[in-house]
Amino acid sequence: MDAMTSSAILVDQLTARGLSVTNRDDGTVSVTNPLHPRIGEVLRALGGRYLTDYGYEIGEHGDEPATADRVTHLLGLPRTSIPEQSTSRQEVGR
After folding, report:
1. Lowest mean pLDDT among 9-13, 72-76, 90-94
2. What average pLDDT does the segment 39-48 reach?
3. Taking each helix axis from N to C terminus, what angle separates 64-74 and 3-16, rounded to the nearest 10 degrees?
4. Which single residue of 15, 30, 80, 91 could bond 22 by disulfide (Cβ 3.0 to 4.6 Å)?
5. More confident residue, 16 or 89
6. pTM of the prediction?
7. How far apart, in whole angstroms, are the C-alpha atoms of residue 4 and residue 10?
8. d(CA 14, CA 10)
9. HEC readout, the chain
10. How far apart are CA 33 and CA 17, in angstroms?
11. CA-to-CA distance for 33 and 85, rounded, in angstroms?
């Protein structure tokens, strides 16, 4: 998967989580929290990894959903869809 395709997938994942995303001319992606527009991060793809503007690695190509989850958490947006976990237990001794 090339950087352009993986970046497009990441943009879709970030948008699906409710973040505001803008593609920049320099190949980076600007992501902001729509509830607090001054809270944001700039991401770039480099060497199979996603890096923040500060140089921190936040994910890797091929794992865009987890990368989008990390960015969502970093920008303080609450998760809207948490997978349901089974709460039923087998009763022992009955």
Report:
1. 90-94
2. 94
3. 50
4. 30
5. 16
6. 0.78
7. 10
8. 6
9. CCHHHHHHHHHHHHHHCCCEEEECCCCCEEEEECCEEEEEEEEEEECCEEEECCCCEEEECCCHHHHHHHHHHHCCCCCCCCCCCCCCCCCCCC
10. 10
11. 28
Start-to-end CA span in the chain (Å)? 53
Region 62-67 average pLDDT: 95
Please return the burial class of 30, using the count of CB atoms within 10 Å of its CB with bins 0-12, 13-18 and 19+: middle
Which phi and psi (to 5°) does residue 92 adopt? Answer: -95, 135
Residue 75 has a CB neighbour count (10 Å cut-off) of 20
In the chain, domain spans: 3-74
pLDDT at 7: 86
Tokens 């950087």 correspond to 3
